[in-house]
Amino acid sequence: MAFDALAASYDSEFSNRPIARLLRERVHERLSVHLKPGMRALDLGCGTGIDSLWMAEHGAQVTALDASPAMLEITRKRLAAHSEAQVAAFDYNHLPTDAYKGPFELVLADFGALNMLEDWRPLAEWLISRVSPGGVLCVAVMTRFCLWESAWNFLHLKPGRAMRRWGGTAAFGDQTVTYPLVVHVVRAFMPEFRITHKRGLGIFLPPSEMFEAVEKRPRLMRLLSRVDDWFWRHGTGTRIADHAWLELTRQ
Q1: What are the phi and psi torsion angles at 88 (to 5°)?
Q2: 50: Cβ–Cβ under 8 A, 6 or more apart, which residues?
Q3: Strand partners, 176
Q4: Three-state secondary structure along the chain?
Q5: 164, 167, 169, 174: CA torsion to nearest 10
Q6: What is the pTM assigned to this prediction?
Q7: Nearest to 150 by CA among 162, 161, 142, 159
Q8: Residue 246 burial (10 A CB sphere; 0-12, 13-18, 19+)
Q9: Radius of gyration of the chain (CA)
Q10: Which of 78-82, 119-123, 172-176, 214-218 has the lowest mean pLDDT?
């Protein structure tokens, strides 16, 4: 699997980079609004377990699921000190009917974890009975149009890369990545969930493949970080950001 090949270097090449840490701090800031000690939290597409660990350290009983065995092995080591945490393999194409019943008060799918889905409705139906009323689903989904990615690649005369998301799908190894419109994601979860908060995550800060262009210019990074932070707190920007941050509350 594509993500197995990335597992060993994922943290060094993405998670530990300055821009990625800044973006994750924003995710944790929003999670802290909903997180309560003792609550049950589900981390869908947990990757190497950074968010799972953060939630566990803040008192949540975490269930961390991912399709990549290599990623899960790193997560297990990361959560070794939290005996109540559960780490297991998960296949979005074959949703288990009798497992992970919760009820969960918080569900997280961070940094494009659900962009492998072509149809979001089956997952929504699977979650309906697993998320308690008033529970919150927090999703960071890669959007169909990323201003940074398109502008950067057009400037570097790479129109194919600039427009790779526009058609809604792109190849990633032996898998297909989908880039849904925000409205399509929200509709897939209606009427059982309603959108209660949305923001652009990474509007003026670049996607990971362009991190270096900004990180090696400290003044530029400080400026972009301040502007990006303002939009995170006061704007929307979901149509032009690298990721759309969506919070959907269970009715």
Answers
A1: -155, 160
A2: 11, 15, 24, 78
A3: 171
A4: CHHHHHHHHHHHHHHCCHHHHHHHHHHHHHHHHHCCCCCEEEEECCCCCHHHHHHHHCCCEEEEEECCHHHHHHHHHHCCCCCCCEEEECCCCCCCCCCCCCCEEEEEECCCCCCCCCCCHHHHHHHHCCEEEEEEEEEEEECCCCHHHHHHHHHCCCHHHHCCCCCCEEEECCEEEECCCHHHHHHHHCCCEEEEEEEEECCCCCCHHHHHHHHCCHHHHHHHHHHHHHHHHHCCCCCCCCEEEEEEEEC
A5: -60
A6: 0.96
A7: 162
A8: buried
A9: 17
A10: 172-176
Kindly state the average pLDDT of the residues 138-146.
97
131-142 and 40-44 beta bridge pairing: unpaired
**Matching residue, tokens 């008060």:** 105
Q: Which tokens belong to 113?
A: 């974890």
Distance CA 73, CA 209 (A): 25
pLDDT score of 123 more than 80: yes
Q: What is the rounded CA–CA span in Å between residue 246 and residue 243? A: 9
Strand 193-201 with 104-109, pairing:
unpaired
Do residues 49 and 64 touch, judged by C-beta distance below 8 A?
A: yes
Pairwise CA distance, residues 44 & 114, whole Å: 8
